Amino acid sequence: MSSTTATIPERALARGSAYRTIVAPIVLGVALLGLWQAVVDGFGIEQYIVPTPTDIFHEITDNLGSIVDGSVRTGVNALIGLVVGAFVGILGAVVAGVWRIFDTIVAPLVAALAVMPIVALAPVLYTMYGADKETARQIVAAVAVIVPVYINTLRGLRQVRPVHRDLMRVYAASARQQQLAVTLPTAAPYVFTGLRVASSLAVISALIAEYFGGPIGGLGKSITSSAASSNYALAWAYVFGAIVLGLVFYCAALAVEMFFTRHRSTP
Amino acid sequence: MSDTNQAVEVRAVSRTFGGRKGASVTALESVDLGVAAGEFVSLIGPSGCGKSTLLRLIADLDTPTSGELSVFGKPARQARIDQDYGIAFQQAGLLPWKTVTGNIELPLALHGAGRKERRDRVTELLELIGLTDFAGHYPDQLSGGMQQRVAIARALAESPRLLLMDEPFGALDEMTRERMQNELVRICAETQAAVVFVTHSIPEAVFLSDRVVVMSPRPGRITDVVDVSLGGPAERDDSLREDDAFFHAVATVREALHGVPVGGARGVDNR
Amino acid sequence: MTRRSAPLGRLALGALGIAAVVAVWEAYKALAPDTGVVIGDTTVLPRSTDTAMPHVWDMISRLSDPVIGIGGDTMWQTVLDGGLFTLRIAALGWIIGVVVGFGLALVMQRFTIAEAAVLPWIVLSQTVPLIAIAPLVRRWGSQITIGGFEWQSEHSVAVIAAYLAFFPVAVGVLRGLKAPDATHVDLMHTYGIGWWRTLFSLRLPASVPFLIPALRLAAASAVIGTVVAEVSIGLRGGVGRLIIEYAQSASSDPAKPWAPIFAAIAVGLVAAAFVGLLGLALKSYRRSEIPV
Fold first, then answer.
1. How far is CA A219 from CA A80, A85, A136, C123, in A?
2. How far is CA B27 from CA A215, B15, B44, in A?
């Protein structure tokens, strides 16, 4: 479509697409926030039913230190879970890619793990490791991370294009050479997709595991204790901290993914 | 035993594929072919005639159901392990995460060549294919023709005595194709390699080859071999494409493809 | 997982997997020290006492014993009832989530500006932890009385399950609706067919390969959401509540907490199996799928 034949609205749209991707969601978000504030104020809704955005904002600024502490606590658990889970998931997928037997045995286990509520294991994990330890939360996060990392890595390892496989055969490359030259680089984008999915999952899992027991500290505990004392604005302030934490993890994983796939067309 | 001066020797080779639900496909039936050292041979024929299958058998990417295949006097498998040939596929098959340099030096790196040796060879090859300025580019930044040139440079990296090429110019437009054909002739003159070249295009086959092997499908077999006596590499330039002898050779090959025997009954090659 | 194995073969494989897990569990109990594997200050591998890690056969035999004391319902009955309760609510949440997700996907496909504006918020919505919303949902729900319909706690749980379930459906269905080749879309255009009919004759059938995994993920999310929300709202009768309750008796009755866990796993598997059946029913639309 040449610019001379495009109609004026079309040309405006084409120019405006970057503008659209950034401005539109922000406009919507601001509009919703404004609506929220207006409805609560206008209808005189009590704070214990729905706090206003301004209430929440005040609680955030008042309790910033506590929010950051909780975020760090939960964040560290999520990070440990992410690292351990990613390591196990990738290693497992590599083994499964090489040994069919391992793949056959593990596949139904991973499928079951993908559909069961992993946080249900939190109470028994607290028993196994002690209710005063953070370990149970890290394990819950790690197990939640293993599933998407394993599945995506295994898929990536199987994506080698036939022409590249032929090329390696033509060069009489050893299995190890083939892995390094072709299989692993082909799988890399899939691994990073798995890590991206797993990143926010790690945060949510670590947080929800706090709800099932364990020591004080962490965003989950703070949210429930403030909700229990009916200070909902404060609870939402901690929720805001959780959202920011989840976003940080997700954006970090996304940045890593984009860096390593910058020279690929979409697979 | 087989003549080691022969680049490729194919004797009574058949390849049958067992299909689903019992329907099997005979891709090649009792094919005989010989390619001398330094000779350029094209395989041409309609879809399903087995030309790509034959090339893959020579490359040891597949094994024949029956018959014998030797490359430089050795079995195909040994020739592959000894890295006696270079291959260019129809899709360039460049590794998208490596630069042009990385792709060209891939076989050298895999076979343990030192860094200096690799750099020197890549510089040489880049000059040969005319892409010195693109050494650090990635495949997604190159056009189709440029990618194919890189693939050919890669095939030449270890200076093989035999080049196997499966419709390498198939995805290119006509102008780029003709230019690439000129390049290939020049490269082959310089390297003196034998070439087995699979193609769909009659003018391409005639322009490039010493001999054109005509094949037909169902079952795949060689029906004719046309001697293209248009001279050596020096004579094969753009002006050749407008030569009467060229058109005559093209007509001969076309007739052979349509089933008219070439100058008497010559069904198989007996060299 | 190959699709070539017959269902019976896959059951056998599943059993093999379970046997492998049991073997690892018992082997660890037999070989590891009572205090577990401790590196420095942290306990890396768990304690292997019978209180911390009951034997697998103890867990299983506990199921046939009564819940408390001597009389009353057996463990497996209680846990089964809890599982069915949770499954019912999860199913309701799943249906709501699927409908909402589908609707959002349709709107986002129809209007590109809607996609640009709404999709980031949909993605962001999943970073909000459920437990925060649960009491709020219950409070809002109790304000709603339409005709004779009274809001129960169960409905709050279902809403939360729907909140988790709608996301994979919205994202997956959107991808699916945008999946058809440009040539197919152009073809419909040349036939003078409008958006609605193109939706039914082209986009919906083309989206099935994306729909099925999305529905499966939504089912898993609905189950997780239901279990966690049950705990958060304190809803009696479901598996979530049982998990928390029985975890209190962990020191005196180590096998007890495991029973509702098995039930929770079973609920998840049933949900996934249901979606698998759906997938079978829609088989003819999935021919273009490449088996993993």
1. 16, 21, 16, 20
2. 70, 6, 14
Bridge partners of B225? Answer: B213
With 0-12 CB in 10 A as exposed, 13-18 as middle and 19+ as buried, what is C171? buried
Q: What pLDDT does A141 receive? A: 94
Which residues of chain A does C272 touch, with a Cβ-Cβ cutoff of 8 Å? Answer: 111, 114-115
CB contact under 8 A, B110 and A161: no
* Distance from the B117 Cα atom to the nearest Cα atom in chain A, whole angstroms: 18
**Which whole number is the average pLDDT over B243-254?**
92
Residue corresponding to tokens 């997938």: C279
Kindly report whether the global pTM for this prediction surpasses the value 0.80.
no
pLDDT tens digits, residue range B73-112?
A: 999 999 988 888 999 988 888 888 889 999 999 889 888 8
Taking an 8 Å cut-off on Cβ atoms, the answer to whether C219 and A117 are in contact is no
CA C200 to chain centre: 29
Distance from A259 to chain B by nearest Cα, in Å?
A: 12
**A44: alpha, beta or left? (left if phi > 0; alpha if psi -120 to 50):** left
Whole-number Å distance between alpha carbons of A83 and B62: 43
For B97, nearest residue in chain A (alpha carbons): A263
pLDDT band at C226 (very low <50, low <70, confident <90, very high): very high
> For residue A48, which residues of chain C lie inside 8 Å, CB to CB?
139
A14: left (phi over 0), alpha (psi -120 to 50) or beta: alpha
pLDDT digits (tens, 9 = 90+) for C115-132: 888 988 888 888 888 767
- Name the least confident of B123-137, B152-166, C20-34: C20-34
A40/A51 Cα distance (integer angstroms): 8
Nearest CA in chain C to A148: C217
- Tell me how close the Cα of A1 comes to any Cα of chain B, in angstroms: 22
Distances (CA, A) of B16 to A163, B9, B30, B216: 22, 20, 11, 15
Q: Which residues of A touch B95 (CB under 8 A)?
A: 164, 181-182, 185
